[in-house]
Amino acid sequence: MQEDRVRLLQAMPVFGGIRDEILGFLLSRCPVAFVAGGEFFFREGEEGQSMFVLEAGRAEVLKRWQERDLVLRTLEQGDCFGEMALMDLSPRSASVRALADCAAIELSAASLYKLYEHDLEQFAIIQMNMGREVSRRLRDADERLFRAAMGVANAGADYVFRAS
User: Fold this and answer.
1) What is the C-alpha to C-alpha distance for residues 11 and 79, in angstroms, rounded to an integer?
2) Which label site among 43, 72, 96, 161 has the fewest CB atoms less than 10 Å from its CB?
3) End-to-end CA distance of the chain
């Protein structure tokens, strides 16, 4: 099981360049969160101290607007979510709800601090990788916003934008 989790993390940009033994060290400090279909990993506006890596199941990212939840995207195995909470220490910017029973590796600020104490170089690589991932998402959002402002068809094609 641990080897499968290491391989799952290695396939993700956030953990690119991280040695196997470091991923094992980190995983030994990360619980697995089990969330039933229809339940929430977290809700928009809540304080956040961790990110998640979806190990099994499907989930959706929701944004509240005019008293409705709008689906922004669907998450599959290997997708990460909640990483902004580890970077900016601000409340959650969206909600994540399980579409089916889910299992997700929970990587907390405390577990990352343990890595910082254990191997500063590998900790720094993860931080840089998270920054790159958030930057990539920001670029995508900027492009969609620009296309929407210019009236380009399918400006938000990557997003579902359906009421839930």
Assistant:
1) 10
2) 161
3) 34
d(CA 150, CA 86) in angstroms, rounded, equals: 34
Question: Is residue 158's pLDDT more than 60?
Answer: no
Cβ(92)–Cβ(44) below 8 Å: yes
Task: Kindly report the average pLDDT of the chain as a whole number.
Answer: 90
Model confidence, pTM: 0.85
| Beta sheet of 162-163, edge-to-edge order | 40-42, 95-98, 59-65, 68-75, 162-163
Q: Coil, strand or helix: which one is 90?
A: coil
Sequence ranges of the domains in the chain: 2-151
Level-2 CATH architecture, domain 2-151: Sandwich (2.60)
